[in-house]
Design goal:
2 copies of one chain form a homodimer.
Chain A lengths: L3 E7 L12 E7 L8 E9 L3 H5 L20 E8 L9 E4 L6 E4 L5 E2 L15 H14 L6 E5 L4 H12 L3 E6 L2 H10 L4 E4 L5 H8 L4 E6 L3 H8 L2 E9 L20 H4 L3 E4 L9 H13 L7 E5 L4 H9 L6 E5 L2
Parallel strand pairs in A: 8-9, 8-11, 9-10, 11-12, 12-13, 14-15
Antiparallel strand pairs in A: 1-2, 3-4, 3-6, 3-15, 4-5, 5-7
Amino acid sequence: MTLTNRKFLLAARPVGMPKRSDWAYVEEPVGEPKEGELLVKLLYISLDPAMRMWINDARSYMPPVGIGELMRALGLGVVSASRNPRFAVGDHVSGLLGMQEYALSDGRGIAKIDLKAALPKYLSVFGMPGMTAYFGLLETGQPKPGEMVVVSAAAGAVGTIVGQIAKIKGCHVVGIAGGPEKCDYIVRDLGFNAAIDYKSEDVKQSLRKHCPEGIDVYFDNVGGAILDAALTQIRRGARIVICGAISQYCNTGPIVGPSNYLSLLSNRATMKGMLVLDYADRNAQASAEMAGWMAAGKLKSREDIVEGLATFPETLLKLFNSENAGKLMLKVA
Amino acid sequence: MTLTNRKFLLAARPVGMPKRSDWAYVEEPVGEPKEGELLVKLLYISLDPAMRMWINDARSYMPPVGIGELMRALGLGVVSASRNPRFAVGDHVSGLLGMQEYALSDGRGIAKIDLKAALPKYLSVFGMPGMTAYFGLLETGQPKPGEMVVVSAAAGAVGTIVGQIAKIKGCHVVGIAGGPEKCDYIVRDLGFNAAIDYKSEDVKQSLRKHCPEGIDVYFDNVGGAILDAALTQIRRGARIVICGAISQYCNTGPIVGPSNYLSLLSNRATMKGMLVLDYADRNAQASAEMAGWMAAGKLKSREDIVEGLATFPETLLKLFNSENAGKLMLKVA
């Protein structure tokens, strides 16, 4: 029996929000693994803000996805055939498997999952967003007990974990999120000290109210006006973690830089970029610590799972419209 | 005999470039020092880019100069009368003495100068610009031997010292300056490896040419388009020292933020602000080291000395028109 693979190729460079016509959804027969290869049947595929950057024709930490190429995506699946001694049929694996149903791979960049929690957790708290939050906050942000930590996109996959880890570390935590449902969630369910609804509040004024002595650590996932508002409220010696800039990824013009960056000077503050790739060798240790916090009820995660690979072009937009509730992913049929 | 003091007060908040009508030049009798006070006759007054920030109505590391108040300025003078036991008539002193001929002071923030070099050097290499360069480069920039260091406003009071110290520390140094005279000066006289004339070259392309493997330390005095160009050429782990933003100080609109700041993320780079005030207790040590380098012929400084306090409004503009050759200061008649 010949299996059929379905996959999304990048058909055109999107301008602003990616449209369905920017993608090509194609079918092809699944190949047989050659010596050293394995075949993975995808189960869940992660949808991430970084995807919007990967399809820009711009130099970054990875080369852009080329026109006509398989869309890059993190995913998780089960090995359905293997001629690679590191992997056996039935193993659960994760990696950059692409936006498709079946991935044929030589095994590079693919890791076995030692399954101890529900599968989707390996794309959220135990996956890239969880590791980003853990290392971005603790290594780059360097929060100390009693400090004021502010995080944007606070109800998102990274922001929820950042805020909860900051609470575990004894910080005072304020989250910035869009809409009352998200704000309620981070305060009532996750224990943030306060939430600022950027859709209905003046972020600068609300930061002044909730952080009367200023911000020690600002973890930025959004860029734009919210980063600029946070810059006006930082304290001396503050650390700003640059993790993402989702407000800017679908711009049709250039990215808007932080007009208030000279606040770094008057406050002797630091703005530092981080990439989770750099911490691959410490993921197991971080996962173990986070699993302990989850077991103790101190760390929660929420996944927003949408059925069907074919929905990718529309589902992706939930990220940029701030419509996802938790870590967004596709369940492959 | 009653002495007459002449001084500049801030008369109006400037919009863009400060005009003469933004200042009031007034005369008044010089007061007698009361118990604990001293009277300083100003000899040299420093003109600094930061002055433009001090007269904006905006929160910064110091409160803004108020309308009708004496213009803030660093200066250097000789004690002409003293009822303060720390100071004797004839002592040379420096501090925030104001834009005036005579300063009556309680001695706070005023330091005695142990005169070992020509007086103007205490406002340049042994003064605020020299200390800014020394601590900004070595503490904030953390250059290592063999690294690529780029500095903007490279022929200015801070930039010349930054580049020379970087050379002393074994770095490869590229300076960005305006016009052939300044570019020749930093390469031929000061030993920079290369100069980029931002008035006639495409800075981004020239940086790519002179820094083929990218920039490790970028010391920014200018902000704006040059900061943005440098951000496109940084290497992984780069450090960007935010020392000033002279291209932005006379804007009539908001400061332009660095559009390419997400390069911090893809390069895991750091942008950090520094203020020389924080290193006051280590100035003596830095001055001693710099004096050694000067004696060895490894460190040079140049001063641009303009005669007459009354020229202040026009002389100040040389900074923003990039017309000064070396550390700009007034010689008080």
